[in-house]
Each structure stands twice: as C-alpha cells, then as structure tokens.
C-alpha cells in the first residue's frame, strides 16, 4: 500500500537544524519529472526493482540496496527500469541537512550504495511511522530520528567509506612515525618522506582522512603524551612536560592543551592527583 505523510510544522519546528517535511512509501513508483527540482532535500531508498535517475547531466542506475539523494532546486527526473520499483522516501529541510550530507561525501544529487540496507529501511520505517502520528510532539520526534539517520549516513553509504579508508591506509607509516617520535622536532617534509609523497599531497591526505592538517595531528599526539606524563610522573613541572612532549615553548604547549582539552595543563595535572 502506498503511504505518504505531510508534516504539520510550527514556526519553532522550522527553526530546528533538521526537520522532516514529508515521508512515505511507493510500491510502484511512477515516473517523476521535475524541471525546476524539488524544494527540499530528499533521500529515497530502493526496496525492489531498478530505476534510472537523471540529474546534473548524469544518468544513474538505482536498484535495491541503493539510495537516491536529491538536492533542493536541482532539475531531475527518475523512472522505473525494472518493475515493481518500490521506494521509501523522506523530504527534509534545515540548516544542517547540507553539512551532514557533506560529512558522508555527498555534495550533489546522485545514487549511493547502502552498506546495511536492512538498518536503513528500519530507520526509514520509524520516521514514516512517526510522520503519521497524531501526537503533538511528532515533528520534534521525527527531527530526532532524522538527525540520527543523517549522522549514520557516513557509515551507511559507500560515498566516502572506501576513499577515506584508502587515505587512512596510505597514512599508516606516517601515523606510526608520529606516534613513536612525536616528542622530537618534526616537519612536514620529514613526515611526507615516511609515506613517499610530496608535502602538499600529505596535507591533502590528512585533510581527507582526518579533516586535520598534519601538524595539528602531531600536536594531538603530543598532548596525549603530555597527559600520560602528568599521570605517570606527577613530580614533573609543566615546563618539563612540555619539552618532553615535543613542545619547544611551554606557553604554546599551554595554549594547545587548553584548546584541545578545554582546561589548562595545571588544572588537568591537579585533577589527576590521587
């Protein structure tokens, strides 16, 4: 049975960072042609059959186990190739929709393979059921479910999973080197040599794998080492700890520590006293 629910949204609902506008299921998806696109983000999962999506001058095959993401106001059309082409769909808006999709490497309309279709179908079913509820708090509850779904998408799709893993694997020699020698003076050139790449490409790999610059990663390892030193050798002074963790200046160590940990090294050290 076909299902569609439109959400009754208050002004406060529309101020949520993500909120549901509609949700449902089509057991026999009819052809859709939107020359001006659709006003909201849409996420559709294919339950059976196969279809084709035309968007951004590309044609994508979409079959069971895959999902379609449509960005607002982007012209598109889609239709069945092998019937029955059965879909679940959600439409959503809010300031965090784009950034949360971008975390999964999804920055434009397209088709993406789901790593765990059963879980995503269960998540969709919960959202669709919530959208059809007459409860006065239904829209807020749907927003919670939708937010959780969007947070899971990086782990649920292959849009970014494989490339991120490849970048991580490529950086393993560098990561091991930093772990072992973070207390020593390190440079971008030296780190790049460990992976056999140029310094510029090393920066790109770190950005794609960790969303950090290489020296930011080094500083995080140094802060971890400093915390271990504070716990294991409480007699050491902050300036001594800074030097042993690889920081040339204690003042810079204190700045980095507070930025990453939220408290000063002194407060952290005192909190570890037994």
TrEMBL record:
SUPFAM superfamilies: Homeodomain-like, Regulatory protein AraC. Keywords: DNA-binding, Transcription, Transcription regulation. The keyword Repeat does not apply. Residues 172-271 form the HTH araC/xylS-type domain. PANTHER family: ARAC-FAMILY TRANSCRIPTIONAL REGULATOR (PTHR43280), HTH-TYPE TRANSCRIPTIONAL ACTIVATOR RHAS (PTHR43280:SF28). This is HTH araC/xylS-type domain-containing protein. It comes from Paenibacillus ihbetae.
């Amino acid at each position: 049975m076909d299902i569609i629910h439109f959400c009754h949204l208050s002004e406060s609902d529309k101020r949520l960072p993500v909120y549901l506008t509609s949700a449902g299921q089509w057991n026999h998806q009819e052809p859709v042609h939107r020359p001006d696109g659709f006003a909201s983000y849409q996420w559709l999962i294919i339950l059976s059959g196969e279809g084709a999506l035309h968007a951004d001058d590309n044609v994508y095959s979409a079959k069971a186990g895959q999902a379609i993401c449509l960005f607002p106001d982007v012209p598109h059309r889609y239709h069945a190739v092998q019937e029955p082409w059965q879909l679940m769909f959600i439409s959503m808006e809010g300031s965090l929709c784009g950034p949360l999709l971008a975390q999964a490497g999804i920055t434009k309309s397209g088709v993406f393979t789901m790593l765990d279709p059963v879980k995503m179908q269960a998540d969709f079913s919960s959202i669709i059921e919530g959208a059809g509820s007459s409860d006065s708090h239904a829209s807020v509850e749907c927003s919670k479910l939708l937010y959780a779904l969007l947070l899971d998408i990086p782990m649920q799709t292959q849009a970014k999973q494989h490339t991120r893993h490849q970048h991580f694997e490529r950086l393993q020699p560098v990561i091991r080197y930093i772990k072992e020698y973070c207390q020593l003076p390190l440079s971008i050139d030296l780190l790049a040599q460990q992976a056999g790449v140029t310094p510029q490409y090393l920066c790109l790999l770190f950005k794609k794998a960790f969303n950090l610059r290489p020296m930011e990663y080094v500083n995080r390892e140094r802060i971890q080492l400093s915390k271990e030193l504070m716990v294991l050798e409480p007699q050491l002074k902050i300036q001594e700890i800074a030097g042993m963790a690889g920081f040339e200046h204690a003042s810079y160590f204190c700045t980095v520590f507070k930025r990453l940990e939220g408290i000063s090294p002194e407060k952290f050290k005192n909190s570890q006293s037994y």
